[in-house]
Structure formats: C-alpha cells, structure tokens
Design goal:
The complex is a heterodimer. Chain A is mostly helical. Chain A has twelve helices and two strands. In chain A, β1 and β2 form a beta hairpin. Chain B has one domain.
C-alpha cells in the first residue's frame, strides 16, 4: 500500500500534498481543541502505537499471516482527526527514517492511509453500529469497517498509480512513471485487497477493538455529536441539490434508450430490443406519467427524487429496527 | 577524535528458534515472525549510528543543508526522464557515498527491497504483449503469436527502475549519514508546524519503548508455549497484547504530559540548536539547486 518514491509524477505528488494540507491543518485545529495540553504526548504515543501495530503479523485462517495499517483502530479509539495526525506521523517516520514509502509520495500515502482510511472506517462502523448494537453487531461493524476502509484506500492508490500513463508520458506515448493503466491497476489492487489485505485489516480491527470493548469500553472514542448527524446533513444537502439535474442536457453516458442508441449506432441491438419493454416502472424517466410540459416534468422529477430518497431511508430504517442484535 | 559506535555481530543477527511452537495453523508462527520483524527493525535503527559519526563528505555538511540538498536531489531524480541522465545522477550518488565513507554495497542493500519489488512489478511491461515495439530478444513464436522483449519496453522499465533506485539511494544515503536527533533538528528549519516535529521526535523515542514492551511479551509467550496455538487462540492473545501496548502508551502519554506541565511546558517548543552554517554548506545547497535546474531542463 505504501507507494514508493518514483512511482508517481511530480504533478500528482504536488496535488496530493496540496489536498492533504487543509486536512492536516483541520486535524491540528481539531486536536488543539480536544487534546489541549496533553496534545503532543498523546499524539506521539498514538503514532508510536500505530507504528508498532503496523509491524505485527496477524494470523488468519490457512496458516498465513499479514500486516495491518491500523488506521481504523486508531480512528475508533481516538477519533478520525487524531487518526489523521497519528497515521501521518507514523508514515512520515517510515518514509524519512526508514525509507519505507517515499518522501515525494508522502502526500499520496497520507491521503490514502491517513485520511480516506480512518474516515471511511469510522463512518462505516457508525452506520452499521447505529442505535444500540449488541456485541455481535459491533464485532461485525468493526470487521466490515476495517475491510471497507482498506479497500477504499487501495482503490485510491490504484487510481493514483493507474492515471500515471495518462498524465505523464513522453511525446512518443511512453509512460514515464508507474507504467500500468487503470484497467490493470484497479483489478490488481482489488483482487489482492478484496481477498487478502482487506480481510487482515477487518479481522485485525475487529479483534483489537472487540478486546477493548470487553475490557475497558470507556477508552473508546465517543464523539460529542452523533457522527451520523453529519452524514444525514450531507445526504440532506445532496437531496436538496437534486433539482440541479434539471439543468443538465442529454442523457447520462451508458443510460441510452433505444431511440438514442439508434441515433448513435444506426441500429438497435437485438437483445436490447427484446428486453426493453420487459419492465415498465411506475415513474419512467424520473417523471410522473402525464406530466409532459416543462414545468410539470420538473415537478415530477423533484417528486420522484423525494419519493425515491424516502423509500430508501424507510427501507434502511426498517432493516435497522429488525436487526437489533 | 572520530567516534565510532560498534554494534556486536550477535546483536545484529535476527535468529529465531527452530521450534515452530508458536505457529498458528501451518508454517512458522506469527510470534516468531513478529519477534523477527522487531529485531530487524532495531537492527535498521542502529545501522546509521556507525556511519553518521564517520568523517566524510556528507557528514561534514550541516544537517539542515544536507536535508535540503537530499530533498532537491530526490525531486531532480523525479524530474529526469532519460536513461543516461538518471544513470549520471546514480553515479553521483555512488561517488557521494564513497566520499562519505559508506560502502556502495551497503547503500545498495538498503535499496534492494524496493528495487526487487519494483522489478517484479514492472517486469511484464518489457514484453511485446504490453509494450509493442522493435524486437530485442525473441523468446518464442507460435503461429501468429510472438513473444519478445521490445526495445521500448526495455527502455520503459530501465527509466522506471533507475529512477526508483536513484530516489531510494539518495534517501538512504541521507539516513545513513545523519543521526536521528539531527534529522528532527534539521526539520525544524523547514516550514513545518513545531508541534508536528516535536510529536515526530517523541513518536520515534516511544516507538522504541513500545517495541521493547511488545518484544518482551512475545518472548515471554514463546518461552511458555509448547503446543501450537490455534488461529483463534493466536488472535485472542495478539489482541490482548495490542491492548496492553495501547494501555502502556496511554499511561506513558499521561505521565509525559504531567512531567512536561510540571517543567513549565506551555505548548511552545524551545530547542537548543548547535548548528552553524558554513561556506561549504552554502556550496552544497547551491550545487543541489544547480542539479535541480539542470533536471528541470532535461
């Protein structure tokens, strides 16, 4: 997962350092508020703890072992912002003192492992463990959080590596940095992380945090505000922004109807022709049947968006009520 | 007089017992693997001590200027695009290593893991099925399918491997010639928040403490284990050890913060700096800037 020096173009490294700058700044600000005088020793010891658990081999079924990153463990114990700083410090020491990872790629590695990973894991855990979960659900939530977070970080690394031939090649088209395109980097990273490293991270996270839950739950990070509240606010904003879709012209790529396909290709593929009328939805084209004028169709679009969102929320709510364990 | 830290050979060895008693499932156990990883980490930490005190070219440069120069050389290597220019930079690094009284083989050994990984990763790109081009070596031909090493493919992996080698060896040379306290003090001259650097140096210090805790508990477990552990038992024990390390780290953090407060620490970090920039340090930085400008033009 650690991208070494020389794999990413200077342009990519610069952009990812710039992307991390506000994250580091915000993390430092947040920690100054919460940790206060204890800030530096707590951060240092958290980073040292992260560094040490990165060295441990975790046994998994089949007799093999593997390392974990530990970002989700730190996020669950100290909060996601503390995890940003702790994992960044651990990565800096690995790069600068031991040459593991890279100095030019430190921004990229921090973006993947110190930012995406703890936040993804933290929110996935809180989504799955919403309400009053039992031990079993908490264990599963940690397992999935570690697994998902690791795979998100791996996907980000795969994208960073895979775009190199597109953005940094010589005039004759020769790749100058990481040579494989997205079509190779994404499946390669996905296979290894979905089948092995994600599992290690998931099992490692679940086993460590579950042990803490059994022995001293009080040390786990307790957010002042319910983290799902922010997620709800974000989702609410996205729902309110739905009418922006009315401004767009044309059809989304790959979502062509038979008429549009005919215009593009000159013919309608046989399979598509046969299956097109198989299912007619209640609100075809995100509209209410009969709402044909411009104003009415806009209204139909907003109503269908609101109905769709409400149905998803209701389904998740019911599923959550059923699955209390 | 030159100060040389001699580490006894037995301390550098990472021997583990032949008994696979701590295996969880098949093969070598995770306890042995962890002990080995911790021992090799400590060996890696101790290695630069014997070189940073030698009287050599880089050791004579102010650590701040040395770090600045190393970073510029790394960026220069990232900017270079030709085999010849990167080879030239590599020769320059080798010459600097010799002038700093560091055997090139030691430098190569430190960069070997990343080079081996990179070679394994990019090897397929030298074949025509990924990078078509002029034939260099034909492997086999069957009907309409030819497998050969292409000129373009070979050029691609050469540039990539040489660049990775150059960047890794510059960083390794800097690490080998600079003691850890000097690295942290040199970082203070850069526009990085002070609390971050203080946290960095404290982290490094406490990694050693926590590794000692982990090593002791692993050794104690290994000494008391006869029968193989099951995967479940192994994971349970490891979880308890990680919890122990976490608890120790929180206790230490609490103690250190109280000790810092008792000594009047208000959040502002003040350090003594015995660094003094001399003429040769400015020449070194000027040379690094010159190489960077040349690389940007290349």
């Amino acid at each position: 997962m650690h991208i070494p020096d020389g794999y990413l173009s200077p342009k990519t490294c610069g952009i990812l350092y710039l992307a991390m700058a506000p994250v580091w700044y915000l993390a430092a600000r947040k920690l100054q508020k919460t940790l206060q005088a204890k800030e530096i020793p707590t951060l240092a010891l958290s980073a040292a703890f992260t560094f040490v658990i990165m060295m441990f081999n975790i046994p998994i079924p089949g007799g093999t072992t593997g390392h974990m990153v530990g970002a989700v463990v730190v996020a669950c114990m100290l909060g996601p912002w503390a995890a940003v700083v702790a994992v960044s410090i651990a990565l800096t020491i690995q790069a600068l003192l031991f040459g593991d990872g890279g100095v030019t790629t430190l921004g990229a590695n921090s973006f993947n492992m110190a930012f995406l990973m703890p936040f993804a894991g933290y929110y996935v855990y809180h989504i799955i463990a919403a309400g009053n979960p039992g031990q079993k659900r908490k264990w599963i939530a940690f397992l999935i959080a570690g697994y998902v977070a690791m795979n998100i970080a791996a996907l980000a690394a795969a994208v960073e590596l895979g775009i190199q031939p597109l953005i940094a090649s010589s005039p004759d088209g020769r790749p100058l940095y990481a040579p494989y395109p997205l079509s190779i980097t994404i499946p390669a990273m996905a296979a290894s992380h979905l089948l092995f490293f994600g599992l290690i991270e998931g099992i490692g996270t679940a086993m460590i945090v579950s042990y803490i839950l059994k022995t001293n739950e009080a040390v786990l990070y307790k957010p002042a505000v319910n983290p799902l509240r922010r997620l709800w606010i974000g989702l609410g904003i996205l729902i309110l922004l739905t009418p922006l879709g009315l401004l767009s012209q044309g059809t989304a790529w790959g979502e062509w109807a038979s008429k549009e396909l005919k215009a593009l290709l000159g013919f309608i593929p046989e399979g598509l022709k046969g299956l097109e009328g198989f299912w007619t939805s209640l609100m075809p084209g995100y509209n209410i049947p009969g709402f044909d004028s411009q104003v009415k169709s806009a209204l139909g679009y907003v109503i269908s968006a609101a109905l769709g969102s409400a149905m998803i929320v209701l389904t998740i709510y019911i599923a959550g009520r059923i699955w209390k364990k | 007089m030159e100060k040389v830290v001699k580490i006894p050979d037995w301390l550098k060895r990472t021997e583990v017992g032949v008994c696979p008693c701590c295996a969880a499932g098949r093969g070598r156990g995770f306890i042995e693997k962890n002990i080995e990883a911790m021992a090799s980490f400590l060996k890696e930490v101790l290695e630069p001590e014997s070189f940073s005190n030698k009287r050599g070219l880089l050791q004579a440069i102010d650590p701040r200027a040395r770090l600045f120069g190393a970073l510029l050389f790394i960026v220069s290597a990232a900017l270079l695009k030709g085999v010849l220019s990167i080879t030239g930079l590599l020769f320059m690094v080798a010459a600097m290593s010799l002038a700093s009284r560091i055997n090139v083989i030691i430098l190569f050994r430190r960069t070997l893991p990343v080079l081996a990984f990179t070679l394994f990763l990019v090897l397929p790109t030298m074949f025509n099925f990924i990078t078509p081009g002029a034939v260099i070596v034909k492997i086999f031909s069957f009907n309409y399918f030819d497998l050969y090493i292409s000129k373009q493919g070979l050029e691609n992996i050469s540039v990539f491997l040489l660049r990775v080698a150059a960047m890794a060896s510059i960083l390794s040379l800097f690490i080998l010639t600079t003691g850890y306290p000097d690295i942290f003090r040199a970082l203070r001259s850069f526009p990085i928040p002070r609390f971050f650097i203080t946290a960095l140096s404290m982290t490094f210090r406490y990694i050693m403490v926590l590794i000692k805790v982990a090593e002791d508990s692993h050794m104690a477990r290994k000494a008391r284990t006869i029968k193989s552990l099951t995967v479940k038992e192994g994971r349970g024990w490891l979880a308890s050890q990680i919890w122990l390390i976490m608890q120790r780290s929180m206790e230490i953090a609490e103690g250190v913060s109280l000790a810092m407060a008792a000594r009047g620490f208000t959040g502002e970090v003040k350090t003594m700096s015995s660094f003094k920039m001399r003429g040769r340090d400015y020449i070194w930085m000027g040379f690094a800037i010159f190489v960077l400008l040349l690389s940007a033009q290349a």
